[in-house]
Each structure stands twice: as structure tokens, then as C-alpha cells.
Design a protein that fits this description.
The chain is α/β, with parallel strands linked by helices. It contains 6 helices and 8 strands.
Length: 247
């Protein structure tokens, strides 16, 4: 039995840790965005990747699924923001130095968001300074004033960054999950996580962030993408729309 379980753990790459509550959202102190304020929100090209998850847990990108998800999520975003009374503007195509600058800021947003999740949202791993911030309900993160020079920034009030990753468990992964469970080993099949952040395009301050590592909704179809966007924009400032259930 020991060798059998060890083989499964080795094949998985790791044994999954207990689920941690990381469905979190935060808004910068003093920031308000009333519903139907008709603000112009610039949506930078969402970082979306969709694919399969091999039996060993490796992510296998699927270009067709990813393209469908991009289209579905963009449409769902426009519908959701229209309901909130805001206007969504797609960021214009960027070339040369502007394209490089945009990529750097998207990477910066990903890094800052991950830092928020790890060091402020996750209670077991908070930085000393963020322990104080949480007690005082302070949410103080920034991408820097360089965002004001990004393509399209001059024509909008806020910028919306989105990251979404979906890995659908393969048949082999699901079979492994069943056999592992029989041996008392926890194996996760599928990965569905995302986060969205609203940024002040003048100061670069992160005004709101929502992160969830266990999202629902199949982004490969329109209805699933609508549900996913509802979860990504959970507790969006000024939102009066009921939260979407995960399943």
C-alpha cells in the first residue's frame, strides 16, 4: 500500500494541501464608485489561459479553448459593466515600446496581485506591515504612475486588469483522483482560478482587487463565461448585482 500511495504522490507531483479560504476582495480606503456613475473603464487585454490537466497535473494549453474564452469573457464583461452603469473600453492595440510597456505592467499587476493574495489576504502568511494594515482595514498597493502612459489610459477613468486560468482535468487525472481517494490521498482534478483589479489610471493605485482560486463556470461557453465574470467582479465597487454562485 505504501508504495502504491507513494507512486500516486510522485505521479501527481505533490499531494494537495487542504483547501484554504482565499476567496477575498478588498477596496482601497475612501474609494467609492457609485452605481450608474457612467465611468469609462479601460479593459487591458485579459491574461486568459485555458487548457487541460494531464494525469500528472501538468497544464496543457489549448489555443481553441483559450480563444473562445477570450471572446466569451470580453462580451460578459461588457454586459456586466453596462448593468453597473459603466462604459467598457477595450485597450487599443499596442506596438513597439508601448506593447513592451503594457506587457511589463500586466506582469507587474500579476506580481502585485499575487503579493496581495499571499501576504495580505492569506492570514497565515501576512507580512508584519500588512498585519497592521488588516487591523486598520488599510488596502495600500500601487502599480505606479506609469499606468498613465499606457495605450488608451488618457481616454478612461480606471483600468481593469484580469487574470484567469482554467485547467480541465483529463480522464486520466479523474481516474487517478478516484484511486487516490480510495487510498486516503487527496488529488485535485482541475484548476480554476482568477483575479481582477481596478486601477486608478492617474496614480496607479490599486483601488479594488478580487481573487478566487476555486472559481466556477465553464469559460468555453457564453453562459459559463457570464458566471465566471460575475465571480471575478464579485464586490466590485458600486455593484448592486447579486453574486454568481460558483456551481
Amino acid at each position: 500500500m505504501f508504495y502504491w500511495l507513494a507512486a500516486i504522490a510522485g505521479l501527481c507531483g505533490c499531494v494537495s494541501a487542504p483547501a484554504m479560504a482565499q476567496d477575498r476582495s478588498a477596496t482601497k480606503q475612501g474609494f467609492e464608485l457609485p452605481a450608474h456613475s457612467n465611468k469609462r473603464i479601460l479593459v487591458f487585454r485579459p491574461a486568459i489561459s485555458v487548457g487541460g490537466q494531464s494525469m500528472a497535473g501538468m497544464f496543457e494549453p489549448n489555443a481553441d479553448w483559450t480563444e473562445k474564452a477570450k471572446v466569451n469573457i470580453q462580451r460578459a464583461l461588457e454586459m456586466r459593466q453596462a448593468e453597473l452603469g459603466n462604459t467598457v473600453i477595450a485597450a487599443p492595440e499596442a506596438y513597439g515600446d508601448q506593447a513592451r510597456d503594457l506587457q511589463e505592467h500586466m506582469a507587474l499587476f500579476a506580481a502585485v496581485s499575487q503579493a496581495v493574495i499571499e501576504y495580505q489576504f492569506f492570514t497565515g502568511n501576512r507580512l508584519p506591515t500588512k498585519k497592521h494594515d488588516n487591523k486598520a482595514a488599510v488596502f495600500d498597493w500601487s502599480l505606479g504612475q506609469g499606468v498613465a502612459k499606457l495605450p488608451g489610459a488618457q481616454d478612461a477613468d480606471y483600468g481593469l486588469f484580469i487574470y484567469d486560468k482554467d485547467a480541465y482535468g483529463s480522464t486520466g487525472r479523474k481516474v487517478l483522483q478516484v484511486f487516490a481517494a480510495m487510498g486516503g490521498v487527496s488529488v485535485v482534478s482541475g484548476e480554476h482560478k482568477g483575479y481582477a483589479g481596478l486601477v486608478d489610471l492617474h496614480t496607479g493605485d490599486l483601488l479594488w482587487l478580487n481573487a478566487d482560486v476555486e472559481m466556477g463556470g465553464d469559460v468555453r461557453d457564453a453562459e459559463g463565461a457570464k458566471k465566471r465574470v460575475g465571480q471575478l467582479l464579485k464586490k466590485f465597487p458600486g455593484s448592486q448585482i447579486a453574486d454568481e454562485p460558483k456551481q
